[in-house]
Design a protein that fits this description.
homodimer, 636 residues, mainly alpha, Transcription Regulator spoIIAA, 6-stranded mixed β-sheet
């Protein structure tokens, strides 16, 4: 694919072009640069921009609205909106009550704590949160993690009071951690839980939970078959319950929506009635038992800020905090994108964090915005956070008056509710999509999945996150560097491996570096440049001696940053080239790279005229012309 | 700086251009891609390329030469080369003997271990190593680390035998770790010790060592002044010793070279004579004392592979291993670059690792190629690894016959030798250079420096490495994304902030992403694109309604990789744009990005004709033409 020299030259004459200068970027002080960097790191969303140029009073109002989003939509709230919110609020309440009880059991906590947790946190969120669709309450994953991490050191059956104390304390630390992430504007930390990690993690957790629940279900079935204890009882509702459509997919099946949304409550009511009617609790069917009526008792006196379990509690708090935060933020963003409004990540973190801190002192455990219930909320037509208030009030009524009704609810139905909710977390199509697009992401997903199942919840997660970070580091350590060729009939230069029609230019080695140049990759880049030069010369030796290597062009367009090692690499490379009688040419360095090169180049040997070009095309054209001029001088 | 529309259009007509297609990259199987990726990760230097196409016998010879580089230069070895090597070997021996004794004391080991370590390892390296200038032996930094890490758990004075056992075992694990890095081709791990980290670390270590030694020096001085014990003794040689030129700088001062290279030995001889003559050892001057004659006793029976200290020994081995490896490889590369030959990093690691493993079973502690002695070796004219053999033989002779001579060598001289060697590690000009070029690197350096001094050797190092990695992650999480404008009179588009003459094109928002798009930054990128669009529209509202936003061009030239989250981000962005009646256009995706987009795009909605362009210039020209055609159709 290599054209001969004369061909290329005539082509150059055809499209003659002006040479543009690479200019020095406008000067900025270190302070200005630091300010910009900090702003981009911590305030990329520029949260204060709406305050700019407003009168003082307006600023106060905006400030209050910023802290309490309820003040933004509250004044315009109408009866019409309330009708929608009432329906959706009642709908999610019908889900929240059975799920709350079930998830509390998943966390090895008394069932009533699940109801407490569906009362206070939604009220707090309604005031502070900025999502309109988030349905707040306990969620399966966080419940599982909380329960399994605490159980490693304390038995929930032998020492239930201590276990409860640790659960509330963990909730407090989860909230503190979440709120701190938001306040310190470190929200980007949750970005490190990639989609692949989460899909694998949730599927693994779902399988653990399902196996746990199936085990107790099988015990019931075994009892039932084995002893013929209940010959008159119809074969229960398991199949019906397992057969109900997954909640998560309810967004896609609006026709079956009301069925699926109502199923858990209907199951609970029916099974409770059956147990009550047949007095099945005396025949080996375990039931919830007596629940205390009344609202959340205070629990701030149960929080533990010292003692031998402090480490466990903080660790559990951080892990459940980050996982539940990820779910809450992701749900919020998903529905905000659907309805085209903005959710401020850092503000949401503060809201969810405060909600958990308040919750921990009112007998609630970790809560967040739940995937499944938020989808139901959205489909049931929720317009504002009032649907959370409606749900909370419904739960309150339940807590005050309806607790005796749950006395006969069989535990097995709760298990079925849990399983139904969690199997929806296993997302096979998404896993297939990941396999198709990116194999490494698939490995990360698999690690999270297998790690959660075979090692432990927190280690599986840590493994997947570690692997994701390792991938990023590997990309930096082994950056892409490609050889460019000319697309015939243009001044465009592109990757020779990708564009098969591209041709090499005799005498030129054109390389493009596609990563920041830093300490982690200078050795590699150096070796690679050397190897390419050797290969070029080896190839040339086979052919004629005529067109040997004269210029090495380094296209730095894609070098987004450079550090001291990177600068040293470029300086050393220039020295090596000089020794070999080759010319090194840099193309289109961005401002940061340009500045650092200049600062490192006191002697001025580095920035000679023929050293910097704005495009590869211009560099080749100009250098070819110089070369021709030189050789004709030599000849004449 | 915004030209009006008509101006730009006329300019477009002036430079009309052909539109080039973005082609699908040639298909490659997953296996092929995996193979390539693995090759670039582990075999970037393609170590087997010289074997290609050779006959079998030649392959065997090449293979043997690959494993034992001595076979490559051995057959051509001449008397002339030997003369050079003899001189340089004797010179470094004159350094190695006093330094060996001193560094062993720094590591809290018996002085003779330092001599043992200057005998066996150089011989092993001479056979296996590929550097011609490396002078092998104990070094100050590794000695310091070994001593201080082991001393945290075992006292060298109370339990000297155990301490020695642990030192040999640590050496074994250091060697094992080094050789494994080389065998597994994980040599890039040492790249994570950036130049900034090393400069800070070495300066911190130098200060610790100097303070330690100065303390004992001051004790001697205090004794001397306080008790008038040695009124007849001249005020010793401290000032002379401290005044001797730093060894590290000897490369720059060839005139004083022989003086500086010989100074340690001369100091030792002179001070020993003085002590002997005045019987100063009886007057409060501590001396080395009796040393056992004879060669290295075997020590493989002292290695500990189990027991309560195993963890300590492995940790110490890894830390000293990686630090000494970094020094050895860096020294090797530096002198290879000076003399224009190649040093294979992974092979060097195996050589250094085996050398330490052999050493650990022959009473040697951690050794590597020393900065200062290699410089002396180079300057004294060393040509091959034979200079190491000469040095080893000289040390052997010393061990066999000259040990009684060192009996009266005062410890204080050894301290002075250590201090002289380590103050050369404090590199103020390099620190200033780092401050000038990259402030963040300077912080990393400072952390290493202060961490080593105020926390501990290993924590200071871990802190600096952690910070360097954090910087990389931060760059990925908050990637550069800039708005581009047209450089007047060309089809070139560059950063508007850098090129002040660049102008925006009405109706277009042109963004360039300069980092891989992945899970860690999609949220940020999304927020940023949205904000820019809002700003664009806000600005336009102030002006006329005429030229509102039509096209968002995303220049992906610098996006070197993408993952599933990144693909999802682009898909979502396209959906959002469609909703807002804007057109999203991608420019110049590299082959990996292109492929993944295609695989994610089953419906084909994504790859419509007007969606992909090869350059920003062509995209703007073509889209402007389409827009004009459309509006003229509407008008007619």
């Amino acid at each position: 694919m290599e054209p001969n020299m004369s061909n290329f030259q005539s082509h150059c004459v055809e499209i003659s072009m002006e040479v543009h200068k690479v200019v020095t970027p406008p000067p900025k002080s270190t302070f200005e640069k630091l300010k910009n960097r900090l702003k981009e790191t911590f305030f990329p969303d520029d949260p204060l921009r709406q305050f700019k140029g407003q009168p003082l009073k307006k600023k106060w109002i905006l400030g209050a609205q910023y802290v309490f989003p309820i003040l933004r939509w509250g004044p315009d709230y109408s009866l019409k909106l309330f009708k929608s919110d009432l329906v959706s609020g009642l709908t999610i309440a019908s889900l929240a009550i059975p799920q709350g009880i079930s998830y509390a059991k998943l966390a090895n906590l008394p069932p009533i704590v699940g109801l407490y947790s569906s009362f206070v946190p939604p009220l707090v969120y309604a005031v502070l949160g900025s999502s309109r669709d988030l349905a707040v309450g306990p969620v399966s994953i966080a419940s599982l993690i909380l329960g399994s991490m605490l159980r490693q050191e304390v038995s929930p059956t032998k020492d239930p009071i201590l276990f409860l104390q640790l659960a509330f304390s963990s909730t407090f630390f989860a909230g503190l951690f979440q709120a701190s992430l938001g306040m310190l504007r470190l929200g980007f930390i949750i970005d490190f839980l990639s989609k692949a990690t989460l899909i694998g993690f949730m599927a693994g957790a779902a399988i653990i939970v399902s196996l746990q629940q199936l085990k107790s279900l099988l015990v019931v079935m075994a009892n039932y078959i084995d002893g013929f204890l209940l010959p008159s009882l119809p074969p229960f509702d398991e199949t019906h319950i397992f057969g109900e459509p997954e909640l998560c997919k309810s967004t896609k099946k609006p026709k079956l929506f009301w069925v699926s949304a109502g199923a858990p409550l209907v199951s609970v009511i029916l099974s409770t009635l059956v147990v009550f009617a047949f007095k099945a609790q005396h025949h080996g069917i375990s039931v919830i038992g007596k629940l205390q009526e009344g609202l959340n008792p205070p629990s701030w006196n149960m929080l533990q800020f010292s003692g031998s379990y402090l480490g466990l509690v903080i660790k559990t708090g951080i892990v459940t905090g980050i996982i539940s935060l990820t779910e809450g933020i992701a749900v919020g963003r998903t529905f905000a994108a659907l309805k085209n409004y903005q959710v401020d990540g850092n503000k949401e973190m503060i809201a969810i964090g405060l909600m958990n801190m308040v919750g921990s002192s009112t007998s609630c455990y970790v809560t967040t915005g739940a995937f499944s219930r938020s989808a139901v909320n959205h489909n049931a037509g929720a317009k504002t956070a009032v649907s959370n208030i409606v749900m909370a009030v419904t739960v309150m009524v339940t807590l005050l008056f309806l607790m005796p009704l749950f006395q006969y609810t069989p535990n097995v139905v709760l298990g079925a509710i849990i399983v139904t909710a969690v199997v929806g977390l296993i997302d096979i199509p998404a896993a297939y999509q990941i396999w198709k697009i990116d194999k490494f992401d698939f490995i990360v997903m698999l690690c999270a999945f297998l790690g959660v199942i075979f090692i432990s919840v927190q280690d599986g997660l840590a493994l997947a996150v570690g692997l994701s970070i390792f991938k990023i580091l590997l990309q930096v350590t082994r950056p892409k560097m490609v050889t460019l060729g000319n697309i015939p009939g243009s001044h465009i230069y592109r990757n020779l491996d990708h564009y098969k029609e591209a041709v090499t230019i005799p005498g030129f080695l054109i390389l493009s570096v596609e990563a920041p140049i830093n300490f982690a990759n200078t050795t590699y880049l150096n070796e690679k440049v050397m190897r390419w030069m050797e290969e070029y010369e080896a190839e040339n030796e086979e052919k004629t001696k005529q067109a040997s290597l004269h210029f090495v062009i380094l296209d730095l367009s894609a070098v987004s940053a450079i550090d001291t090692s990177g600068v040293a690499f470029l300086k050393d490379l220039k020295k090596t080239m000089d020794k070999r009688d080759l010319e090194l040419v840099l193309v289109n360095p961005i401002s940061e790279v340009m500045e650092k090169l200049q600062r490192a180049d006191e002697a001025g040997e580095f920035f000679q005229p023929d050293f910097l070009y704005l495009t590869v095309g211009e560099a080749v054209a100009s250098l070819t012309a110089t070369m021709k001029a030189r050789s004709s001088q030599l000849l004449s």
